[in-house]
Design brief:
The chain is mostly helical and 787 residues long. The protein is built from 38 helices and eight strands. β3, α5 and β4 form a beta-alpha-beta unit.
């Protein structure tokens, strides 16, 4: 047998199953020699697992121990008869008396082993037919068979389908193989492991790079592996690397199967439905299903939890893309991509329109009925990664008309699922395409897309850059409909940058554009944005007026999602205006609508705002229930930012009732918010944690200092000023420090004309000056003669 593998980690479940079968072989509970087949994709560690366990079993299976590489992937697999001849010679048979027929050799082999207790490893098998003559009959021979093929038809006692390593096992392997336990704390090692696809062969090569061949750093490795055009080069330092390993399986395929394998790499997503595979290959759906199963049998693609959906391992997908680009011309690749776009785009557009009541007139009654049952939304959820990739292809091929339709028809879905980061990344490709095509309208819409996405993701620098370009693009398009869209986007960008008055002016211009065109849905959107700007300015009655106009528009159009969104915003305005009962009523209505459409992210937002309104009304127990359920929803969705906000509110509700519990909530919220990059929530919770420390007669200074250090450019100017005002109110902070905080706050708030917050800051600093004056006068009073 080969040497025992070094640095073996993981595979505990597989080892347990195989060891159990070995026990059955020894104690006679198995009626015949046990056969364990280990199958899996290239480089997954099949041989390593078999050899590792075999070495553990050598003392108990102390008879013949045979190993052979059957060369099943070499194009010329070993003949079973030749393998049997080698085994028989190794077992002591005279080479001159060995039978010439394979079946006779097989019979002799079995007769020799019938009284033996040994191990047999048939490595790298081509198929079941190659293996059958080599299997022992009865007796205590434990046989391992490894193969990339599914080995359909093999009468094995146990089949283990080997997958990539779990992340922790992959990390432990790297630490052991490199002798570097400090990798457990390395900030880049997780990226390295995932970019290797947790494939054991790739990880072995990475270990070599980390401890030899130049002693690469994990940061450098992660950077080089992110480039897909170079990833296999890094993981293929020799003819035993990842590329060569996958190439052996590729060469096993028939001509048509190779073509299908290559064409699948044109799909801009690792996971795909068989219908998408039919589109890119140009094959009938019935036939492509069978061909995909052939690739599954060779572990070149994998079946997901859904029978009709398949996926590539990342490294195999990259290999397939390499073969596509080397074996097909650019014209042929373009034809495949166009075929995919023509097949998918109409479905994506119809699904997007199904979510927008004003556009449903373009759908068939059957499509409308399906949308009402949620089919369109579920389809978009399932196919969104693929749609993202296809939008990139549309931009690449500069299909201007299709891009414009996609931007307009899919924005509602992006908003419903809060996919703004994804939308921001796509906007960069679309802006580039508009520049190449020199198409003014597409350029304007692309910049509208980028401005919205930058504002929604709180990307301040990106918003500034998009607004600068948007102004120039506006000069090139005269159509009032698109002028209105651009002005609305500009208003959102200015609002993020704390230029609320400028934002309000843009929203009003867009509103009048839409009003002049009798465009109800556009006017409603602008009314909502005007209301939000008035709310920022502290003009709550005006905000409520415009939210109510937007609400009526949403109801007139039977746009339930917009209705819920506006109800929740209206609740916030009611709350700020001191109308808690109205706020509770409309927040509750919004929650019920979002619950009906299964929008968990917006349900969470409603619960958060409802809890705040309830707390102000003195209904603390119900507020606690709201924030607790909000926390559960956020944790279920891996929404770290939302979870930190919920924990912060639970801390607020505990403050004064149970200060130690409040401190625990705030500490957890601070950790989560800093981990998610939510500086605003982190600062808010640090301020409240400082209040808690002061109440418990401990020093609040560490929390005050931490909060002040985080109040940088990442927080909007207006919000930064408001937080400095809050920070000045922590008990235990010196008079001088409070004065400094308030002075800084006033300077910031004056720069954005935030009158409401500015008035409070000025009142507080006046109080501080009065307090300082009174203190000085008290110090100069004559001492009393009384004892």
């Amino acid at each position: 047998m080969p040497p025992t593998p070094a640095h073996f980690h993981g595979r505990s479940a597989e080892l347990a199953k195989l060891s159990s079968l070995a026990e059955q072989t020894l104690d006679g509970t198995s009626n015949s020699s046990s056969v364990a087949s280990i199958v899996g994709k290239p480089g997954v560690g099949k041989t390593t697992l078999a050899v590792r366990l075999a070495w553990e079993l050598t003392e108990r299976f102390d008879g013949p121990q045979l190993f052979v590489d059957l060369r099943g992937t070499d194009g010329k697999p070993l003949d079973p008869g030749d393998v049997l001849r080698g085994f028989l010679v190794a077992l002591g048979e005279n080479a001159t008396t060995i039978p010439t027929q394979t079946n006779e050799r097989s019979a002799l082999f079995r007769s020799i082993l019938i009284t033996q207790r040994g191990l047999l490893i048939l490595d790298n098998a081509a198929n079941a037919a190659q293996i059958e003559p080599l299997l022992p009959g009865s007796g205590q021979i434990f046989t391992f068979v490894t193969s990339r093929n599914a080995l359909v038809g093999l009468a094995s006692t146990l089949q283990v389908s080997l997958d990539v390593l779990p992340h922790q096992d992959a990390l432990e392997f790297l630490m052991s193989a490199t002798g570097r336990p400090e990798l457990a704390e390395d900030e880049h090692v997780e990226d390295v492991i995932e970019l290797c696809g947790r494939l054991p062969l790739a990880l072995r090569i990475i270990a070599t790079l980390l401890c030899g061949w130049g002693n690469w750093s994990t940061a450098h490795l992660a950077s080089s592996l992110r480039d897909e055009s170079e990833r296999l080069d890094r993981l293929s330092p020799s003819d035993v690397g990842v590329r060569a390993s996958i190439g052996l399986s590729y060469r096993q395929l028939q001509k048509q199967a190779r073509r299908i394998f290559r064409f699948l790499a044109a799909i801009p997503n690792a996971t795909f439905d068989y219908r998408i595979a039919a589109i890119v290959t140009g094959m009938p759906e019935r036939l492509i299903k069978r061909r995909l199963e052939d690739l599954v049998d060779l572990h070149l693609v994998e079946r997901t939890g859904l029978d009709t959906v398949y996926t590539f391992h990342d490294l195999i997908r990259i290999f397939a893309r390499e073969r596509l680009e080397k074996e097909e011309t650019q014209e042929q690749i373009a034809e495949i991509e166009v075929r995919l776009m023509k097949g998918l785009l109409p479905q994506a557009l119809r699904a997007g329109r199904a979510l927008i009541p004003a556009m449903r007139a373009k759908l068939t009654p059957k499509e409308i009925a399906a949308a009402d049952k949620g089919h369109a939304l579920r389809w978009l959820d399932r196919e969104w990664p693929l749609i993202r990739g296809v939008i990139g292809l549309v931009a690449k091929h500069e299909l201007t008309g299709d891009l414009i339709l996609l931007l307009r028809d899919l924005e509602r879905y992006v908003e419903m699922r809060e996919l703004w980061r994804s939308w921001l990344e796509l906007s960069k490709d679309v802006v580039d395409a508009s520049e190449r095509a020199n198409e003014p309208l597409l350029r304007l819409l692309a910049l509208v897309m980028k401005t919205y996405a930058s504002a929604r993701t709180h990307d301040i620098d990106g918003t500034r850059e998009a607004l600068e370009r948007l102004d120039s693009a506006l000069l090139e398009v005269a159509d009032p409909r698109f002028q209105a869209e651009a002005m609305n986007a500009k208003g959102n960008g200015l609002r993020l940058l704390s230029d609320t008055k400028g934002a309000l002016e843009c929203f009003k211009k867009a509103y009048h554009f839409y009003d002049s065109m009798s465009e109800g849905s556009g006017r409603s959107i602008c009314a909502h944005n005007i209301a939000s700007a008035y709310r920022d300015l502290g003009q709550y009655d005006r905000a409520i007026e415009f939210y109510l106009e937007d609400l009526q528009g949403a109801r007139d159009q039977k746009d339930h999602w917009s209705e819920a969104w506006t109800l929740n915003s209206l609740g916030g305005a009611y709350d700020l205006a001191g109308k808690s009962e109205d706020a509770i009523r409309v927040h509750s209505q919004a929650y019920e609508i979002f619950r009906h459409v299964d929008a968990h992210g917006f349900m969470s937002r409603c619960l958060h705002d409802l809890g705040i309104a309830l707390q102000k009304k003195g209904e603390d127990s119900t507020a606690i229930r709201c924030h607790t359920f909000d926390l559960a929803l956020c944790l279920a969705r891996d929404d770290v930012r939302g979870a930190s906000m919920a924990l912060g509110r639970l801390g607020d509700l505990s403050l004064g009732q149970n200060d130690s519990r409040a401190a625990a909530f705030y500490d957890a919220a601070i950790d989560l918010s800093q981990a998610s990059g939510d500086i605003d929530t982190a600062v808010t919770c640090l301020i409240n944690r400082a209040h808690t420390a002061a109440r418990c007669f401990t020093d609040p200074t560490p929390y005050v200092d931490a909060a002040r250090s985080l109040l940088g450019e990442g927080i909007l100017v207006r919000r930064r000023g408001a937080l400095l005002v809050s920070l000045s109110q922590v008990d235990g902070v010196s008079l001088e420090t409070r004065n400094r905080f308030l002075s800084d706050a006033i300077e910031l708030l004056e720069s954005v004309d935030a009158q409401t917050e500015l008035k409070r800051a000025r009142d507080l600093i006046d109080s501080l000056r009065d307090e300082a004056t009174n203190s000085q006068e008290s110090d100069h009073e004559p001492a009393s003669n009384q004892p």
